[in-house]
Automatic annotation (TrEMBL):
Pfam families: Aconitase (PF00330), Aconitase_C (PF00694). PANTHER family: ACONITATE HYDRATASE B, ACONITATE HYDRATASE, MITOCHONDRIAL. InterPro entries: Acnase/IPM_dHydase_lsu_aba_1/3, Acoase/IPM_deHydtase_lsu_aba, Aconitase/3IPM_dehydase_swvl, Aconitase/IPM_isomerase, Aconitase_4Fe-4S_dom, Aconitase_put, AconitaseA/IPMdHydase_ssu_swvl. This is Aconitate hydratase. Transmembrane segments: none annotated.
Amino acid sequence: MTKQTKSQPRNLAHKLIESHLVSGKGKPGEEIGLQIDQTLTQDATGTLVMLELEAMGLDQVKTELSAQYVDHNLLQTDNRNPDDHVFLRSACEKFGIWFSPAGSGVSHPVHMERFGKPGKTLLGSDSHTCAAGSLGMLAMGAGGLSVATAMCGEPFYLNMPRVMGVKLTGRLPEWVSAKDVILEMLRRHGVKGGAGKIIEYYGPGLKGLSAMDRHVIANMGQEMGHTATVFPADDVVHDFLKQQKRENDFQRLEADSGATYDMYDEIDLGKLEPLIALPSSPGKVFPVREVAGEPIYQAYIGSSANPGLRDFAVPAMMVKGRQVHERVSFDINPTSRQVLENLVELGHLTDLLSAGARLHQTGCNGCIGMGQAPATDQISLRTVPRNFAGRSGTSEDKVCLCSPETATASALRGVITDPRDLDMSYPVFDERTTFFVEDRNIRPPARHPELSVVEKGPNISTLPTFEGLPDSLEGPVLLKVGDDISTDDILPAGSRILPFRSNIPAISEFTYTRLDPTYPERAKQYQDSGSLIVGGENYGQGSSREHAALAPRYLGLRAVIAKSYSRIHWQNLCSFGVLPLNFVTQDDFDSIEQGDNLVLKGLVEALKSGDSIFAENTRTGERYELTHNLSERQVRMVIEGGLLNMMRQALAA
């Protein structure tokens, strides 16, 4: 994006990028560097971020604001999670970071309540950081190491995205809500439809969507593989910030009249109907009416994908004076302390509990596999953002994604139910009746950080160091996988595995075990000499969890050859010195078998010159032409063994 004159109408995404651009010309597909104003970390990824900051020798964060949330690993079945929470609190005091302890809520809605500001950039070590685009921010998820470097004052680098403009018209009908809007986008475009794009919503239909409705849509833009979602900062955002007692943080930000986009879509909100994503992909979307009648075991309300007060109040109004079906576990997961206190004050929590609901602590909980796993072969309807197989904690689960209205209607009936079929009036919730609750437990940066001492429990290990890329690489293809492999496939989440997140040798034992339980042991045989993985389209979709790159690298992974990559995981591979290569001829994927030995020569020179790289298959004698999409900076990063090595050198200098 070459800098435009004031006379040229600009869309909002371009305005946000231009105001933070520090390097690059903004040509689509080419690397740009952006100044980062705010960062967000959570406990499943933040432990590594703090260790990375320590390894780089940071004294105080250089951002306008950085916040650390404890929302993922809330189960305290032994010392590991609470020890890490103590570590995070002490690291925040040391580095000058806001700290949100366990019980304060899920990072994304809490950040929106307390810290989100129109016009700012936000980078988070959680892929759903994009939810803050609901406030007119440029908010993106990234690997923890990228976030750590931003906290050191460095730019965030990414390939310049194209901008898809989505015009919203009309008004949502009764029993249809924001979740159905993003499910409609997934139905149209699939889990790869947002790749390389910022999705910007505009049009008259925005007036009927609250700030938290927009959060729902922006949050799950990540399930389309997008770079970010952007909404304007308009009267709706002003009302939200006023309600949060932060009216002074508002500034109006909208696309110019006549602004254009690289591509277009349009949704008439009035024509939408209740939708549902069937197992095991957010892109497998159908009308609820087409699958109605299937018995369910669980209906789950909450998560960062439906965090607003109305997402709990409407279900409460639906079940008031009624009982959920005897077969259904009706799970309520308040997303912030503020939401929970409002539910109590307004009487909605009593209505939910009286109807048979199970109340869980404020946090991510079952969304990340921390409890609430469904029974074997039983359908679970959830308002969460993802339904990748096994993510719930139950192997080969049957998790469906839907709106709070659909989940609640199904809880009452005991079967998947189109809420329009209920014999009741649609409950309209007026958010203007709510009261404000200050999040009293969120702790500001320490006044005297020089007196702080970082406290490390026995589960925290030193980050491993990696050598640079060799000029020649010969190794086996230890794994060949298909399309849409997720980071949950590569390194699962859940209560059994995530407590090892600050211990890379320990967590690496779970690498790819969902797909192949033998992978870690086989990989250890080539830990020093190196191994490869071959993948299909959209390799590494899903979470920003950098463990999915770091753990395989610890086990000796030196290169991945795939048809295409998800943005965040592709960058994470580079950050830890794993070379991400692409097939020039897609059909070559079919001729490689798991166990084949590949030889790649002249890597360093080919990377520096931009020439093709060739891999020879010693089994067949075939040669495969490979390429990459790395910038000069990323080439240097991979050759030197990763971003941490580069930052150590830079900070030492």
